[in-house]
Write a structure and sequence with these properties.
There is one protein chain. The chain is built from three helices and ten strands, in the order ββααββββαββββ. By secondary structure, it is an alpha+beta fold. The strands form three sheets. A six-stranded antiparallel beta sheet has the order 3-4-8-9-10-7. The chain has a two-stranded antiparallel sheet with strand order 1-2. The N terminus is likely disordered.
Length: about 150
């Protein structure tokens, strides 16, 4: 894995923007949800989103909303797909299946890791897990397919 102080391998840029800016600051929903890129390597990516009161689905439980879980899984899957190629490209989610295992713990943020396990000429396939405190007890898992825009 790359040096933790620099989670982005050399050359992982989109235009003039490094991938961490592309995945966090340039995507309005990622910025609004406070997503942070933790690390990226060939075909893999890890992102987090913090617990915040405005991201809670049910004020009585203090549990982060399931839509935040969905957004984090989808976005981290997109990161892994882009990290699988030699250059970043526009992509689109074709299919996203999420299995919710349990609610997140109250007042807990989430971490997600995604792995692009198969790339074809036009479609990339990825799996992901999201957890709060214990990676061995996931909140949700996902499997997705992404369209690759390989046109120049």
């Amino acid at each position: 894995m790359a040096d933790p102080s620099d989670p982005v391998p050399p050359g992982m840029t989109y235009g003039d923007a490094p991938i961490q800016m592309r995945m966090t600051q340039f995507a309005p929903h990622a910025q609004a949800l406070g997503m942070t890129l933790v690390s990226v390597e060939k075909g893999r990516g890890v992102m987090t989103t913090p617990w915040r009161e405005d991201l809670v689905g049910d004020p009585e439980t203090g549990v982060i909303a399931s839509g935040v879980v969905t957004a984090l899984l989808d976005h981290t899957c997109g990161l892994a797909i882009n990290a699988a190629g030699d250059t970043l490209m526009p992509i689109a989610t074709l299919d996203l299946r999420i299995d919710y295992m349990r609610p997140a713990k109250p007042r807990a943020g989430l971490t997600c890791e995604a792995h692009a396990y198969r790339m074809t000429r036009s479609i990339g396939f990825v799996r992901a897990e999201a957890w709060d405190e214990d990676r061995s007890d996931p909140v949700a898992t996902a499997q997705a397919a992404f369209m690759l825009n390989t046109r120049s």
